[in-house]
């Protein structure tokens, strides 16, 4: 029943996108082609990011345990290109705010789903061996959808000239969180481990 | 949405032909691509013997398997792979698995056989011939234990033993959490190996003093046998015999280099192959030498043929004969010399002659000397075993610890002394019984030890040793250092009526994949459907959720 399992994972990953597309009213605006354009922009932005990272960030040779904070920070900064890409997509689409956000986010998230999840699922979930990570991957894509919608909304808010002054700071903070999310998680992880080992060391000494 | 999608695809088709190719060819390729192999655990398995001897098939007939794993305690065993550990192995359980037409049987052997208690080893040794005696279509494999395999076994054990007795709820929880294993072998179905040639080696030391000297032939077969060819190391049977033969060759070649000790006997040494398969090497060698050659040492004056078989342990020596030797013959002389040497120099050894008539109606011959006896050459076999039916002659448990080096070197010295007394006619010349011809240092224990170590380092089943094998070439080199005229002799099965047929696919790689039962997939589908339903409702009524969130955060803004 391994093809069935692949079907399960695919349904879990893809159906929420389908439901979101249908129910958010995008279908009434003939937005399919625009979503595909947003997806193409995603591909282009990812390609640029990869080239940039490969050119300017050589492989870091160092100890396995030490985390290169500065290097990883610089790498995470490149993710700003994501925000720029979203802004580009939204600025090219004429229409209401919600329409722009939804089109950009849907296209972006669908492109990410197809590019980074379809092939591992096809290759892995179809095999005889069972692993929980495929269900995890599919569920991850749902969370990514919500994340990209939020990100697009925050980018749109940032570019509005009529945004109340009091909202500027929270919006900027949220934008920062979006970009540096993975980096911050790693930092927290490292510091937590360091504190834990220090604590254990002290307890046993 | 589908209308728009179809519109897009239409445009794509109409606009450019190459574009459709770029889109479709990878899709088709991915669809027909074979599934990759990602195994939970990959390990080597060794198949049980499969061979035909004189038209009679033995052993397992099948090699491929792709079945779920179970242990013997499970209720349903048919078309499942039954895993057993050696400690739990018993013939009834094995028969139970075969009766229920199991898909396969895998027996897990400990890495180090010496950690097993003796009674289990003995019991398994006795069961091996019974397992081989009947032909079975169920593939039987042996695997060496490691940690992962052990964990797979324990997991299968818990899931198999809990199958019968549990309520529906327990079964449901069980399916979600348990791990099943699918055992798959990579490899094809087994088929007969054509043109397999069994190699034997001969070498000689010529005696001095004219033509027509009597010949003494010393024979030992170098191949081993066990329930699995790749696991049969044959330490005592017959690694001990071969090492003793090499040592005797060395000793007598040293004696024959000096004119003073050059005796009037030709010594012919023969290391035969296919010994465990009814002595095929010896049979063909005899045919070639006696029927097809004009002159051969075997045709003229043969004093006797001494076959060495399993002499690495034990405190008894048995001289197996098919006809008790008559007085005045060289065989009788050897018998007497052996008795003399044992009684005067090695009183702890119990020596006896065992008389067993050749029974041509039997499937296989008992000892190697019977081949010579059939051709009317006087022959006997020396062994510490009393009967040819002893289980340790053909067991995979016969590994290096089974050979006691001191006893092997004692037996070598004993036989060397007795042979020397016959060759140099010492008893007639009045030499006393306790005269030691070979002093302690002459029989080199290190040499014996290293030969036995080398022989037991690799499996020497007849199906695995072909003419390019390192075993044969090393033995050839070794014999060539001491003997002259070292020659190879090949045996190939007859095309129309083969005496022996070997099959391949004796060593396979088995993969154990973690699988979930089918119920699990259905359960997962139901859960995912429920989740999607919830998502759909949430999105449909998103407005409700939004106003709820506003109401919760509203009190803060109302204060402004």
TrEMBL record, chain A:
Keyword Endoplasmic reticulum: yes
Gene Ontology CC annotations of this record: endoplasmic reticulum membrane; plasma membrane
Bilayer topology term: Multi-pass membrane protein
Keyword Endoplasmic reticulum: yes
Compartments where located: Cell membrane; Endoplasmic reticulum membrane
Domain of life: Eukaryota
Signal peptide feature range: none
InterPro entries attached to this UniProt entry: TMEM147
Transmembrane segments: 101-123, 143-159
UniProt keyword annotations, A-Z: Cell membrane, Endoplasmic reticulum, Membrane, Transmembrane, Transmembrane helix
Family that this chain belongs to: Belongs to the TMEM147 family.
The protein, known as: BOS complex subunit TMEM147
């Amino acid at each position: 029943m391994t093809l069935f399992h692949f079907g399960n994972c695919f349904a879990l990953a893809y159906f929420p996108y389908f439901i979101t597309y249908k129910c958010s009213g995008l279908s009434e605006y003939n937005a399919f082609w625009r979503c595909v354009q947003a997806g193409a922009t995603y591909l282009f932005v990812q390609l640029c990011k990869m080239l940039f990272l490969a050119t300017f960030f050589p492989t870091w040779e160092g100890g396995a345990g030490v985390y290169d904070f500065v290097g990883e920070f610089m790498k995470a900064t490149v993710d700003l290109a994501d925000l720029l890409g979203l802004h580009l997509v939204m600025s090219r689409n004429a229409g209401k705010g919600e329409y722009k956000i939804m089109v950009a986010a849907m296209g972006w998230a669908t492109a990410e789903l197809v590019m980074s999840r379809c092939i591992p699922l096809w290759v892995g979930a179809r095999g005889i061996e069972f692993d929980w990570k495929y269900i995890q991957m599919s569920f991850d894509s749902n969370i990514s959808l919500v994340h990209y919608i939020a990100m697009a909304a925050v980018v749109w808010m940032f570019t509005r000239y009529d945004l109340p002054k009091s909202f500027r700071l929270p919006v900027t903070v949220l934008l920062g969180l979006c970009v540096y999310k993975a980096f911050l998680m790693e930092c927290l992880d490292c510091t937590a481990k360091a504190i834990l080992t220090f604590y254990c060391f002290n307890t046993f000494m | 949405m589908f209308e728009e999608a179809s519109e897009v695809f239409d445009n794509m088709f109409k606009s450019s032909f190459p574009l459709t190719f770029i889109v479709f060819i990878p899709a088709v390729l991915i669809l027909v691509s074979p599934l990759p192999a990602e195994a939970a655990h990959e390990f080597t398995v060794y198949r049980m013997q499969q061979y035909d001897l004189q038209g009679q098939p033995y052993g397992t007939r099948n090699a491929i398997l792709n079945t779920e794993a179970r242990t013997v305690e499970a209720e349903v065993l048919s078309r499942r792979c039954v895993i057993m550990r050696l400690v739990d192995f018993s013939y009834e359980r094995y028969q139970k698995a075969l009766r229920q037409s199991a898909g396969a049987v895998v027996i897990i052997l400990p890495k180090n056989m010496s950690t097993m208690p003796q009674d289990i080893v003995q019991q398994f040794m006795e069961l091996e011939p019974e397992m081989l005696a009947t032909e079975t279509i169920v593939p039987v494999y042996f695997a060496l234990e490691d940690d992962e395999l052990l964990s797979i076994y324990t997991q299968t054990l818990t899931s198999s033993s809990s199958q019968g007795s549990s309520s529906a709820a327990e079964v449901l929880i069980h399916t979600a959490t348990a791990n099943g294993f699918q055992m798959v072998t990579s490899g094809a179905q087994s088929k007969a190996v054509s043109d397999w040639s069994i190699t034997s080696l001969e070498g000689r030391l010529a005696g001095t003093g004219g033509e027509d000297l009597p010949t003494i032939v010393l024979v030992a077969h170098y191949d081993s046998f066990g329930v699995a060819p790749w696991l049969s190391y044959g330490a005592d049977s017959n690694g001990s015999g071969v090492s003793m033969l090499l040592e005797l060759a060395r000793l007598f070649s040293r004696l024959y280099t000096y004119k003073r000790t050059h005796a009037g006997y030709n010594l012919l040494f023969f290391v035969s192959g296919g010994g465990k398969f009814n002595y095929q090497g010896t049979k063909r060698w005899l045919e070639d030498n006696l029927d097809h050659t004009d002159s051969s040492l075997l045709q003229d004056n043969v004093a006797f043929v001494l076959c060495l078989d399993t002499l690495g342990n034990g405190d008894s020596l048995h001289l197996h004969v098919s006809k008790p030797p008559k007085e005045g013959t060289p065989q009788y002389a050897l018998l007497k010399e052996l008795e003399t040497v044992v009684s005067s120099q090695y009183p702890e050894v119990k020596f006896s002659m065992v008389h067993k008539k050749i029974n041509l109606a039997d499937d296989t011959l008992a000892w190697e000397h019977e081949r010579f006896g059939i051709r009317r050459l006087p022959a006997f076999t020396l062994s510490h075993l009393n009967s040819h039916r002893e289980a340790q002659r053909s067991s995979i448990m016969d590994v290096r610890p089974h050979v006691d080096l001191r006893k092997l070197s004692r037996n070598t010295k004993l036989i060397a002394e007795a042979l020397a007394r016959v060759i140099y006619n010492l008893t007639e010349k009045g030499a006393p019984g306790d005269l030691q011809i070979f002093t302690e240092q002459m029989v080199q224990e290190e040499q014996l030890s290293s030969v036995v170590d080398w022989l037991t380092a690799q499996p020497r089943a007849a199906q695995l040793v072909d003419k390019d094998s390192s075993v044969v070439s090393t033995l050839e080199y070794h014999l060539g250092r001491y003997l002259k005229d070292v020659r190879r002799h090949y045996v190939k099965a007859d095309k129309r009526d083969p005496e022996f047929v070997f099959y391949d696919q004796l060593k396979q790689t088995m993969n154990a994949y973690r699988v979930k039962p089918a119920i699990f997939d259905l359960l997962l589908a139901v859960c995912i459907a429920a989740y999607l339903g919830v998502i759909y409702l949430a999105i449909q009524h998103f407005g409700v959720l939004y106003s709820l969130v506003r109401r919760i955060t509203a009190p803060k803004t109302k204060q402004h």
